[in-house]
Design brief:
Blueprint: H1 16-27, E1 36-42, H2 62-74, E2 76-80, E3 85-86, H3 94-98, E4 102-105, E5 113-116, H4 122-125, H5 135-151, E6 156-157, H6 165-173, H7 175-184, H8 186-210, H9 213-216, E7 218-219, E8 225-226, E9 230-233, H10 243-249, H11 251-260, E10 263-269, H12 277-281, E11 288-292, H13 304-312, E12 316-320, H14 326-330, E13 338-343, H15 347-359
Parallel strand pairs: 1-13, 3-6, 9-10, 10-11, 11-12, 12-13
Antiparallel strand pairs: 1-2, 4-5, 7-8
Helix pairs in contact: 2-5, 6-7, 6-8, 7-8, 8-11
Length: about 350
Amino acid sequence: MPAFEMPDSLEFKPDFAEARRYWEAFWAGEIIDRPGVMIRAPKEGCDPRPGPEYMAGHDGNFDRAIDMVLENAATTYFAGEALPCFTPSFGPDMFAGFLGVDLARSADSTGTSWSMPTVESWADVLPLELDVHNPLWVQMIDFVRRFVERCEGKVLCSHLDLHSNFDALAAMRLPERLCLDLYDCPELVDRAIADVRRIYFEVYCGVYYAGKMDRWGSLGWGPFYGEGRTSYTQCDFICLLSPEMARRWVIPALEEECSFLDHSVYHYDGPDALVHLADICSIKDLDVISWVPGARNPGHDHYIELFQKIQTYGKGLDINCSVEQLPFFHERLKPEKVMYSCWARSETEADDAIKWLKDHT
């Protein structure tokens, strides 16, 4: 935790200190007078301005992206625990990119990137190391520092969507080839994942200090905030593994990441990963599950029994819903173990939703 007094306000979040008080209660599993809720709404008297597109700044034009962040924050009302923040990103396989894998970027409106796997044999590339002169790493640290230079005291810099542990290995090797490696050369996979686990701390801390998160607190690439080290963990590759394989290779990596973090959220991506629910929820230092139903699946209100089960494991929940859906979830979930994320049509609608939660808790 910071050894100095944290500022009480941000330019676009004057009640920053009050929001931090509710965040502290949420992480402690306590209630002040309502569950946690992040609501964003258009600011009255302003013409809404869009934030930057995904991967903005990957071309080195940092200032254009930062201009859009500031314009969007200036026209947004941040109610409850919502905070003005921005997550720099060069795409979902940045971690592998930091280790030397090239990233290809789409030329159409999908606005994403993907890795160009280069590992033909783990024996030829081990040990894995973070080269601090890697161009993508240098560019990201420059981006984060430029963002803080212009936005400190106004908008918080969020941490990266890292896709570390086995997701990084899959991006370096190809998922189907990595699956075969688990049978053909498991000892080499042991060494590779051990290297990636070690590098995780270097990557996390490099961005953390460049973004002055030790000064302002930190957010994961999703908007969960906490003083000290806060971030999301995940492993999309776990969908391809048996529980036994996950316990050997993935769960220990997730345990290590969560024990390093002061506050951790697991990005739980899709029903195919539910076979691992008990193992993931058994991670002692994991605080919150952020459920993503996946494409073509129903919304969060369809999974209320899953959310109730997750709460029995003692984990908090990240619930994305409309303000109209708040009563449905509030009646069915423990208020001290949930953080809602909503969008309202107006400041009044946002404030009324927060008042409703107070009146019914």
